[in-house]
Design goal:
mainly alpha, about 160 residues, about 0% strand, about 70% helix
Amino acid sequence: MIRTFALILASISFIIVIGGATYEHASIVPVWASAPPVSLAMFQGDYALRAANFWIPIHPVTLVLLLAALITNWRTARRKFILLTLGGYLAVLLLTFLYFVPELISITGSPFGQNVDGELTRRASSWEALSLARLGFLIVLAFSLLLGLSRSGERRIG
């Protein structure tokens, strides 16, 4: 019972990550990426968007829940699905911290201006396309995690 509960919690948390990314790509990214630096006003001033307030806590929570699911399901048929998801998620987080976050901060931290900057627009477009690929990969990982949930939680001998 605890094995299944741990995997359900990890799955919910992982899918919340996907939901946040989907929301940002549907509502926020198209706006800021459309015409920087003119379109970057949402990141500046006293009422600036603070997406980090969501992203900074959700990743450690999701990692802890995935690790708990892995530990509790170690000797079950679910282990390989959890390992695949955890390994893929760690790779995504590494890429996020090496490329996506620094590039996002660089673009969105550009000073506001009245003229569209072609180079910033190109970088924003590239960031958006790569981020959509990252989101697609996370969705594939979610299917793996949910497929693991469909496997037996009974312990295997050996």
